[in-house]
Amino acid sequence: MDKYLDQFAKASPGAKFGGLAVLIALMTAANFFLVIQPTEDRIRIQVGQRRQLDLDLAEKSAIAQNLNERRREMDVLEQKLAEALTELPEKKDVEELLAQINDIGKKSGLEIALVQPDREYVGGGEFFARIPIRMTVRGNYHEIAMFLQEMANMRRIVNVNNINLGQAALKNEKVVLQSSFLATTFRFVETKN
Fold first, then answer.
1. Rounded CA gap, 90 and 63, in Å?
2. What are phi and psi for residue 166, nearest 5 degrees?
3. Against a cut of 0.70, is the pTM above it?
4. How far is CA 125 from CA 32, 88, 107, 189, 190, in A?
5. How far apart are alpha carbons 68 and 135 in whole angstroms?
6. What phi and psi, each to the nearest 5 degrees, are found at residue 117?
7. Predicted pLDDT at 89
8. What is the 8-class DSSP label of residue 124?
9. Taking all residues of the chain, what is their mean pLDDT, rounded to a whole number?
10. What would the CATH number be for the domain defined by 92-188?
11. Pick from 123, 125, 117: which is nearest to 185 by CA?
């Protein structure tokens, strides 16, 4: 190595500067290929990974935002289902319905002569079952009309058909009619697919 340094020291100034320029060019090239280019490659890879992570974050944020919205929608639907099940319950609950009808009849001033639930009927492919209830009540026209109006205002769906107003009779200075009709209520039936 000393031999090369002696030759370099004895060389002309142009050779010295040329050698120094070649040495600097070699060091610059080595620095570029060994340090700078691998660092730039790592930076490029990390920038690409960051872009991918940003896209993933945006996608997951959209899903999270959508999830909260879906949860709110599900809460609203569950509340609507609970309300709908009061109108169209899943269970038969005829005893509860008969108690409500009896209370309505008493408040309307009627005498309930007959309450006879019939067999439940489920039509083919329907999502509900019909529960017919034959009824006979006694009272004046206004009391019967009030009774039917109160039944129409119940939370549970009750249809009244085949209303028959019988002969009028005078009882305690009051015109009393005997009315018979068919009250039909419904319940939700799970359909099998």
1. 34
2. -75, -170
3. no
4. 78, 17, 39, 10, 10
5. 50
6. -70, 135
7. 60
8. T
9. 84
10. 3.30.70.60
11. 117
Say if residues 147 and 110 touch (Cβ distance below 8 Å). yes
State the residue for tokens 């108690």: 99
State pLDDT tens for residues 43-86: 999 999 999 999 999 888 888 888 888 888 888 888 877 776 66
Structure tokens at 129: 């079952």
Q: What is the SS3 string spanning 52-104?
A: HHHHHHHHHHHHHHHHHHHHHHHHHHHHHHHHHHHHCCCCCCHHHHHHHHHHH
- The vertex-174 CA angle with 177 and 168, nearest 5°, equals 30
Taking the C-alpha atoms of residue 25 and residue 70, their distance in angstroms, rounded to an integer, is 64
- List the domain boundaries for the chain: 1-87, 92-188
Cα separations in angstroms, 48 against 51, 54, 98, 126, 129: 5, 10, 71, 57, 61
Query: What does the pLDDT look like over 128-153, one tens digit per residue?
Result: 888 899 999 998 889 999 999 998 88
Count CB-CB contacts under 10 A for residue 190: 6
Distance CA 100, CA 150 (A): 10
Q: How many angstroms separate the CA atoms of 159 and 135, rounded?
A: 12
**Cα 127 to Cα 93: distance, rounded to the nearest angstrom:** 17
Helical ranges in the chain per DSSP H = 2-10, 13-31, 37-87, 94-108, 141-152
